[in-house]
Amino acid sequence: MSSKSPLYRKVAADLRTAIAAGEYGSGARLPAEDELARRYGVSRGTVRQALAALRVDGLVTSRRGTRRVVLGGATRLQSFAELSSFARWARSLGEEPGGKTVSIEPAAANEEEAHHLQLPVGQRVFKVLRVRTLSGAPVMVERTTYPERIGELVAAMPSDAVSHTDQLELHGVLFTDAQHTIDVVLADADDVRLLDCPAGQALLRERRRSTDPAGAPVEWSQDRYLPGTVAFTVHNSTAASALGRRFGEE
Length: 250
Description:
By secondary structure, the protein is an alpha+beta fold.
């Protein structure tokens, strides 16, 4: 289990995946600490750190000295420790991702879009409005602005393409780094129509600018999630300085 990532995070990630896959149902007890230590070839201290991480995520109970119990109704968790498309993240949880493009049209970049995509104001871009589903249920409205060369590729994709990211990778467009901002906004008319939520419903918004290996922006997106459908986790460490650290690296 050698890697830059701390051992406890690897153990926690494996257990998190097992819980999401239903290997431990609601109310089930996880294996004892010593059993987990043997399974992963780590110390009990490392196991305790992994279980503490799961407790912070709301996946297990926090009673030390007893076998942890898996909590029911766990929120779908999406970690910012690595960059993953919506479709890949959903499949890792055992969910079936879906998507439907509602509209895609060329437009002149406004000041905000031009800033994030490093383009002149008025430059031609493509704006995409899309609804995303998990196992058939709508959970998120995606508003993405692409530079022209990438937007033209997206415009040629089927409206029900599950993942634009996966398709773009086939054309050599790679999403390697991203900066995320999380806040809350009120549902507008498009959100109400596509998510079947009340007007003015508070939605969790993720604003994201993604770049390719050369650092060139490839998308500026604003995703709005229904409350209770997803939670985001962030790992911080004093082992690395925030200055000069690329997002997602340990």
